[in-house]
């Protein structure tokens, strides 16, 4: 058998390199951001954004803020989390009309918000993919998907724990496919099953309800737990937060700029 000429061999090598090399924006699975336990943060979802808080992580509304805002926070050395509701419909979002009425259930206690039928992934997956695309395109490092525990609430749908696990893993996959980290919001009962699928946790009021120990699997896995209380003074929860290595704040319910960190 004749050996290929040197020129042909070189051309073949070059072609293989061009077709297999990753693009400039590609990320390996291990390259996404991984916040560590005890990382300080700011959580602001309302009011004029205060970018002067000296912390390494900001969690802000994905719809309300621009790529320029995210870039400015990056220039200041911050990682930025994109807040989205993935388990509830919000009548004030620009894509509200894209959700068919068949997947919109009971109110979740917040004005203009209603639970979603998370069993209908045929409808919700493309809608959530578009939202997470928005976060990626604006340059966010991670996603905070809210209302991830509908199965424990009166949603208007017969949701099960299995339905919730499937949906939460779907949301995590959509974020990871776009190179972003993703946090598990509340849903304490399913932490043992989901800690491997999420890169950090976000929790509200675990101290008030005596539930903070349930977040230990995230800390043991080297993953941050971003935690907020609203009604307890800091002297009632900060000592335990430090013991458990939680990233704890006292906030007001409207989640404006005001904060008091442990």
Automatic annotation (TrEMBL):
Residues 1-21 form the signal peptide. It holds the Pfam family Glyco_hydro_114. It comes from the Bacteria. InterPro entries: Aldolase_TIM (IPR013785), GH (IPR017853), GH114_TIM-barrel (IPR004352). The keyword Signal applies. Residues 41-257 form the Glycoside-hydrolase family GH114 TIM-barrel domain. PROSITE patterns: PROKAR_LIPOPROTEIN (PS51257). Keywords: Signal. The keyword Signal applies. PANTHER family: ALPHA-1,4 POLYGALACTOSAMINIDASE, PUTATIVE (AFU_ORTHOLOGUE AFUA_3G07890)-RELATED, ALPHA-GALACTOSIDASE. This is Glycoside-hydrolase family GH114 TIM-barrel domain-containing protein.
């Amino acid at each position: 058998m004749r050996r290929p000429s040197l020129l042909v061999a070189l051309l073949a090598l070059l072609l293989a390199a061009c077709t297999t090399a990753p693009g400039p924006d590609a990320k390996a699975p291990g390259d996404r951001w991984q916040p560590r336990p005890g990382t300080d943060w700011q959580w602001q979802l309302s009011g004029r954004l205060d970018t002067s808080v000296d912390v390494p992580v900001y969690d802000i509304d994905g719809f309300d803020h621009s790529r320029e805002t995210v870039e400015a926070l990056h220039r200041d050395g911050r990682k930025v989390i994109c807040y989205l509701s993935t388990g509830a419909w919000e009548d004030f979002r620009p894509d509200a009309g894209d959700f068919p009425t068949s997947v919109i259930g009971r109110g979740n206690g917040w004005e203009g918000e209603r639970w979603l039928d998370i069993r209908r992934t045929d409808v919700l997956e493309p809608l959530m993919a578009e939202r997470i695309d928005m976060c990626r395109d604006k340059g966010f490092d991670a996603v905070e998907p809210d209302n991830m525990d509908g199965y424990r609430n009166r949603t208007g749908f017969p949701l099960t724990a299995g339905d919730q696990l499937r949906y939460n893993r779907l949301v995590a996959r959509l974020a990871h496919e776009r190179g972003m980290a993703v946090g598990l919001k509340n849903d304490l009962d399913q932490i043992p099953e989901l800690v491997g699928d999420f890169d950090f946790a976000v929790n509200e009021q675990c101290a008030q309800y005596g539930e903070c120990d349930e977040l230990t699997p995230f800390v043991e896995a080297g993953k941050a737990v971003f935690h907020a209380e609203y009604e307890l003074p800091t002297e009632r929860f900060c000592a335990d937060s430090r013991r458990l290595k939680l990233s704890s704040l006292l906030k007001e319910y409207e989640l404006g700029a005001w904060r008091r960190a442990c």
